[in-house]
Task: inverse folding
């Protein structure tokens, strides 16, 4: 899976804003992109939410993203927000 890191400073962002930015990145050179899993560390929410397992220290939502055709992991501000796209 390819990883992209985005560092934003001087401006507070929320999940909806980073989702819009990440969609633009995910669609670059791709006809379509699907958000497979995500995490909002500050609010303590992630999707899929039902996963409680960890594999080799990785949270369930991230394992799910990798195992469901995740091709792009986009991290904002040191993993404050992480979105995985297929």
Result:
């Amino acid at each position: 899976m390819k990883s992209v890191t985005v560092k934003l400073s001087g401006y507070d962002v929320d999940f909806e804003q980073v989702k819009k930015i990440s969609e633009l990145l995910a669609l670059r050179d791709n006809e379509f992109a699907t958000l497979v899993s995500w995490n909002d560390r500050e609010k303590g929410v992630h999707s899929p939410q039902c996963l409680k397992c960890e594999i080799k220290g990785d949270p369930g939502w991230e394992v799910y993203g990798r195992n469901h055709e995740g091709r792009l992991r986009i991290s904002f501000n040191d993993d404050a927000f992480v979105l995985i796209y297929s």
